[in-house]
Write a structure and sequence with these properties.
The chain is of the alpha/beta class. It has helices at about 1-10, 30-45, 65-70, 85-95, 115-130, 155-160, 165-180, 190-205, 210-215, 230-240, 260-270, 275-295, 310-315, 355-360, 375-380, 390-410, 435-450, 470-475, 490-500, 520-535, 555-575; strands at about 15-20, 50-55, 75-80, 95-105, 130-140, 320, 330, 335, 340-345, 370-375, 415-420, 455-460, 480-485, 505-510. It is built from 21 helices and 14 strands. The radius of gyration is 27 Å and the shape is globular. Bound molecules: glutamine (GLN) and zinc ion (ZN). Glutamine (GLN) binds near residues 310 and 546.
């Protein structure tokens, strides 16, 4: 098929055709590498074709590099940002790319920091000796970064010059190419501006807060451990919370109706003042609490009406984070997000969620769950610093969250959920890199949650069903309760958790929130009975797959009422001594 396509493209006048092969930066079996070798041998042997450029990005090519180096194609595009050292060594080891063109991705296409132009020039100088011809490029497509820093009016000019979005990155590519071809004299002005930007960033008090650094350096293993093992914690939590068997709860957000979004937008635009805004949010919380009480849920939530986005809401309140006005990037399909920027050392000037949680708790005698976004997700859905390891940034965020967790606890919150839906998303592409990542990621989570009393119950949530390769990491979080997506897969996660020997409480979702469909009580009860075959009743929770912010109130009400009815009927079966129906 590709032979035909290549002939068509050539007939249409394409001199070069790029074949994207990011799959080759993942671990591939020898059989897969053989298949790649054969495929490129065949494509290369075609008479009627454009020149071929095989593009890779996001990581090192590893074993695929010798295969591509030998392949009869005219060019390779290789990522020289994160995996520069490995790719350089491997290229040198195969004797370079004689007769080929090397497209050198030295400008990071996934981050928003200005390039270190002198460092890139020296890298490009090395590469010149390894290929027939070297072209300068971004490391990958620029769809991962916003368009243009010039649109940002609220970021102070001093900080704005640390940043490069797609237009700035394109200019960097052009500058580097010119410097490489015609000498650095021809780019003297750009080099001077670059030097000023780099040194301003390195020396700014934003990037170095001595108090944050001292605290982070003083962290010990004990800080990232709960004071008691799970068996003792759960006894204390049972005594304090007095929950029924198969306790019911939700994941946090309730419908973000048009009015809720308008309220936040009105405040931002100055159409309403803080007093009116707070009254409206309070009214929303009242409605959410009173519905949950009437429906008979056991652990309530305040509903997250004040949050525009689960990462942005915290980023806006943490020192060291920058928000953009126009930094939109594609999340998926037609959905765009504006990731905040982790620009400096992170600290929390004041509590971020305590007021609303405390207000919600004042309305009910049932426990209201505190709701936070975990450190790994805060990094995954932001642009991260490139001047320190992600582990260090995660630790700083974790310490800020740890203070928030403490403050929630001190305000009387007995259940606190720290969401980590992105834990798996930033799993390194190469298996060899995963233990290190999972090590700091799980430590950051435990650091944010480890400081609580034994009778404070820590929940976490992840919204995906396939976690086979991180189930040990989920265990390592040491959360008392985890909720997971499971409705569509008919409790597959429950079986996987059981197979792993997961020792703590879990709530595999019984309500698929990705559709407006209302699950019937009997359907939810059936899922619970299936869950009970894998997880004992004392450790099984009843909850939806994820938050309800995208749902409407009508279906939310009906679905949650059915979910509670399902829990009650299965409780009855358990109490009556009847074996759970299958
Ligand atoms: N607490 C968040 C909510 O309920 C969790 C969202 C998520 O898992 N992505 O909306
Ligand atoms: Zn979720």
């Amino acid at each position: 098929m590709y032979a035909e396509v290549l002939a068509d493209l050539r007939a249409a006048g394409a001199e070069w055709v790029q074949l994207d092969e990011p799959a080759l930066v993942q671990d591939r079996t020898p059989a897969e590498l053989n298949a790649a070798e054969r495929a490129y041998r065949d494509l290369g042997a075609l008479n009627d074709r454009s020149k071929l450029l095989v593009a890779s990005y996001f990581d090192r090519l590893g074993n695929a590099l010798p295969v591509l180096a030998k392949a009869p194609v005219e060019g390779l595009a290789v990522d020289f940002t994160k995996s520069a050292a490995a790719n350089l060594d491997d290229l040198a080891a195969v004797g370079g790319l004689p007769g080929k063109r090397l497209v050198a991705g030295v400008v990071d296409g996934r981050n928003i920091w200005i390039n270190d132009l002198p460092a890139s020039l020296s890298r490009l100088g090395t590469l010149l000796g390894l290929a027939d011809r070297v072209d300068v490029s971004a490391s990958c497509s620029l769809l991962h970064v916003p368009l243009d820093t010039a649109a940002e009016r609220d970021i102070e000019p001093q900080v704005l010059r640390w940043l490069a979005f797609a237009r700035q990155k394109t200019s960097e590519v052009v500058t580097l190419a010119r410097g490489l071809a015609r000498g650095t004299d021809t780019i003297a002005a750009q080099l001077a501006a670059n030097r000023a930007g780099l040194s301003s960033r390195a020396n700014s008090p934003i990037t170095r807060d001595p108090a944050v650094r001292a605290r982070s350096a003083a962290v010990t293993g004990a800080d990232a451990r709960r004071s008691l093992p799970y068996a003792e914690r759960t006894a204390a939590q049972r005594a304090r919370l007095g929950l029924p068997l198969l306790p019911t709860t939700t994941i946090g957000s309730f419908p973000q109706t048009g009015e809720v979004r308008t309220t936040r937008a009105d405040l931002r635009a100055g159409r309403i003042g803080t007093a009116v805004y707070e009254e409206r949010i309070k009214a929303e919380i009242q409605e959410v609490i009173s519905f949950q009480e009437k429906a008979g849920l056991d652990v309530l939530v305040h509903g997250e009406a004040e949050r525009n986005d689960m990462v942005q809401y915290f980023a806006e309140q943490l020192t060291g984070y920058l928000a953009t006005q126009h930094g939109w990037v594609q999340s998926y399909g037609t959905r765009y997000v504006r990731p905040p920027i982790l620009a400096g050392d992170i600290s929390r000037p004041e509590p971020m969620t305590v007021r609303w949680t405390r207000y919600a708790q004042s309305l009910t005698h049932r426990p209201v769950k505190g709701m936070l976004t975990g450190p790994v997700t805060m990094l995954a859905w932001s642009f991260v610093r490139d001047d320190q390891p992600r582990a260090e940034t995660a630790r700083q965020v974790a310490l800020a969250l740890r203070d928030e967790v403490r403050d929630l606890e001190a305000a009387g919150t007995s259940v606190i959920q720290v969401d980590e839906p992105a834990l798996r998303e930033t799993l390194p592409l190469r298996a060899a890199d995963r233990p290190e990542y999972l090590g700091w990621a799980t430590e950051a989570f435990r650091l944010s949650t480890g400081g609580v009393r034994a009778d404070t119950q820590i929940h976490t949530h992840m919204c995906y069903a396939e976690f086979g390769d991180i189930v040990q990491a989920i265990d390592d979080l040491d959360a008392d309760v985890i909720s997971l997506e499971a409705a569509r897969s008919h409790m597959q996660v429950a079986r996987e958790l059981a197979a792993h020997g997961y020792p703590r409480e879990a709530g595999p979702g019984v309500y698929d929130i990705h559709s407006p469909r209302v699950p019937g009580a009997e359907e939810a009860a059936d899922l619970l009975r299936t869950g009970l075959k894998a997880i004992p009743a004392e450790r099984l929770w009843v909850n939806p797959d994820c938050g309800l912010k995208t749902r409407g109130w009508t279906e939310t009400r009906a679905s949650l009422e059915n979910m509670v009815a399902a829990a009650r009927s299965v409780r009855g079966e358990l109490a009556g001594g009847h074996p759970a129906r299958t």
